[in-house]
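We emphasize that the prediction below concerns an isolated chain of 401 residues; any contacts that depend on oligomerization or on bound cofactors are therefore not represented. The input was used exactly as deposited, without trimming of termini.
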Amino acid sequence: MLSVDEAHHIIIENAQKANCQTENIGLQNAVGQVLQEDIFADRDLPPFNRVAMDGIAFNTKAFLKNGNTFKIEKIIAAGDPAYTLQNLNACVEIMTGAVLPQGADAVVRYEDVTIENSIATVMVNSVNALQNIHTKGKDVRAESLLINKGVALSAAEIAVAASVGKANITVSKLPKVAIISTGNELVNVGEIVLPHQIRKSNSFMIDAQLQQWNINATAYHLNDDLTEITVQLKNILINYDVVILTGGVSKGKFDFLPQAFDELGVQKHFHKIAQRPGKPFWFGSNNDAVVFAFPGNPVSSFVCLLRYFKPWLQTYLRQNIENHFYYALAETVQFKPNLTYFIPVKLTNDKKTVKVAKPFFGNGSGDFVNLKNVDGFLELPVGKDVYEKGELYKFINFRNI
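Result of the prediction step, given as a token string:
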């Protein structure tokens, strides 16, 4: 069996060799997508001396020379064209976001001003030049690099792109994905379930997670029949970039997927990883598609999806991958098998308000109900029997926390 790191390396290498296309899409549809162009400032930001408070604007030299009263010669709103003070001893009423008038160099907020009969009286003793003014180019200068390609676009990057006029934006094209559940025991969610049957849940779990990564997958189901599996898979492999399967890859008498892959010419990159849960994971590819065949137990499938498919997807999309988060165990854990252990954990605060990972062991890889209690998995590396409270380990999350 491969180690977790060896399997990860093979998967990343496969993704690096893949040819990910790009597409130009509307900015309103770009959140979560991976940017594939550098974004530059088309002008200074702010593009003018921007007023940062509602109040009055005037020249500080006039304040020092003539005192704290000013005749109001105009009211200026945000969006009004630039204005020039006609009398340097006068002032204007001005709103947040407006262009600072030529000749004025400070703004005093309304809370510090009284106004009567078009005369403004400043109620503070001192006023500084550029007070309450967001000066032109203070944030960035024209032609500055604002966003590097490879970034997954959040609301922050969308706002920046909009500010420089990017109505359309170049992003990595998402792969076309098929999700395949396998097994005679599975029935659709809305059907009557017999005592010997279970409802499909793995495919819904995987699909829901893929949606969080902006992928709208197509779901299929294959019964435990080698001929049916081979015929259906042949067509699916041709029509999709990625095929994700659950079940049918272990050593059972009806686990036909490895044989079907072999008959269809899908190259096996590995089968089985020294980990728990998720050991029987099968990974391969052909000229048309990459195949992730996860074990049928739901926790096993979920761990493999998060630990292996997610980094494959990020690498395939040419995303700049962030560093991992590490959290401390909230209690000591013993685990003797010579395997990497993915332990379900909930993030909580200790007495010092430091975030720690509290194990929720559940009842094995079939206990998907336990997942509702946790935030993700802590990856406990092979080579130890005892993992002490307070030790830091890699955290793999599936909640937005």
